[in-house]
């Protein structure tokens, strides 16, 4: 069963994971830039993620995923990557495929995702 998070939280966690792969440290400004959100919106979201213990923020403002945050982020990232690649292989424009995968990754059941994953691998 999927952990209890909302789509917005999942998107933030996935973004932190992706940024952590390409930046030495992740800060709120990096997330705001990546998502094209205001710094204030990101600040509020980081407060909520910290309260739910999905992230930790150092005194220097560096954001890292906790174990539970990383688990959700990896799940969403895997869904996004697999669904995007699958849609592209079906002939969908890569940008459209990524946008559609972003919506699908949050609502698809674990059972349906597993079936798709098994079918295309």
Task: Please render the helix and strand layout as text.
Elements: H1 7-22, H2 28-35, H3 39-51, E1 55-57, E2 63-65, H4 67-89, H5 94-107, H6 110-120
Antiparallel strand pairs: 1-2
Description of the molecule:
By secondary structure, this protein is mainly alpha-helical. Helix content is 70%, strand content 5%. It contains six helices and two strands. The protein has helices at 7-22, 28-35, 39-51, 67-89, 94-107, 110-120; strands at residues 55-57, 63-65. The protein has a two-stranded antiparallel sheet. A hairpin with a 5-residue loop joins strand 1 and strand 2. Helix 1 crosses helix 4 (67-89), helix 2 crosses helix 3 and helix 4 (67-89) crosses helix 5. The model has no long low-confidence stretch (mean pLDDT 93).
Attribute tags:
mainly alpha; globular; 121 residues; single chain; 2 strands; 70% helix; 6 helices
Structure summary:
The chain has 121 residues and is mainly alpha-helical. The chain contains six helices and two strands.
> Quick check: average pLDDT?
93
In sequence order, what are the helices and strands, one letter per element?
Answer: HHHEEHHH
The profile of the biggest β sheet is:
2 strands, antiparallel
Q: Which segments are poorly predicted (pLDDT under 50) over 5 or more consecutive residues?
A: none
Share of helix, binned: over 70%
How many angstroms does the end-to-end distance come to? Answer: 22 Å
Content of β-strand:
under 5%
> Which class best fits the helix and strand makeup?
mainly alpha
Radius of gyration: 15 Å
Put simply, the count of helices is: 6
Number of strands: 2
| Spatial ordering of strands, largest sheet | 1-2
Q: What is the 3D form?
A: globular
